[in-house]
Design brief:
0% strand
């Protein structure tokens, strides 16, 4: 029954992940392909990855390689490196108020979808579910939101004040549900430690 509800939730969120997962396959040896299949059909992972990819494509957050370059530049140049925006950063591409507003609305919708997916998955998850993969992706989505807010603010400073309260509210909602995942992961780790001793 819960699997059917998860599938319905996936379709309702239009995230494009409609495969079912056989939990028994994930417990067998050599389960790498089973885990990868589970991640592909996991609504939280799909939504988080979609958010991050969209933000990265628009230049709202940096890819892993760009983050490494930025960190190296900071070590070599200090604070001066922070003033230089990476090539392809959102602030270097957008100088139009209407485009900024449209991007904020689109980003807000992605954040809300990710939060909703996380809430539904949490509600329908079996007792004892390991939420670490979801938590990792949600934390990455939070990182993307923080960077997006910075980029939006930088453009807003150039083109005129923009209302970002909807985005801020959506990002805060995502942060709250991510904290719940963190609590669940810690609780499960504590139970595992207690049962091992």
């Amino acid at each position: 029954m819960k699997l059917g509800l998860v599938t319905t939730a996936i379709l309702a969120l239009s995230l494009g992940a409609c495969a079912t997962v056989d939990i028994a396959d994930m417990t067998t040896l050599g389960g790498d392909s089973a885990i990868s299949t589970a991640e592909k059909s996991n609504v939280v992972i799909t939504a988080s990855d979609k958010l991050y990819a969209a933000f990265e494509e628009k230049g709202l957050c940096q890819s892993e390689s760009e983050r490494m370059k930025s960190a190296a530049a900071f070590l070599l140049q200090g604070r001066q490196a922070l003033e230089n925006h990476p090539e392809g950063a959102y602030v270097t591409k957008v100088s139009n108020f209407d485009r900024l507003q449209a991007d904020i609305i689109e980003a807000t919708a992605l954040v809300k979808n990710t939060r909703k997916a996380a809430e539904i998955y949490l509600e329908l998850a079996e007792v004892g579910t390991d939420f670490r993969p979801e938590l990792k992706r949600l934390e990455k989505a939070i990182y993307a939101c923080q960077n997006a807010k910075t980029q939006f603010q930088l453009v807003s400073d150039k083109v005129g004040a923009t209302d970002m309260s909807g985005f801020d509210e959506a990002a805060e909602g995502l942060r709250v549900v991510t904290n719940i995942y963190g609590d669940r992961v810690r609780e499960q780790a504590q139970k595992n430690t207690q049962s091992a001793s």
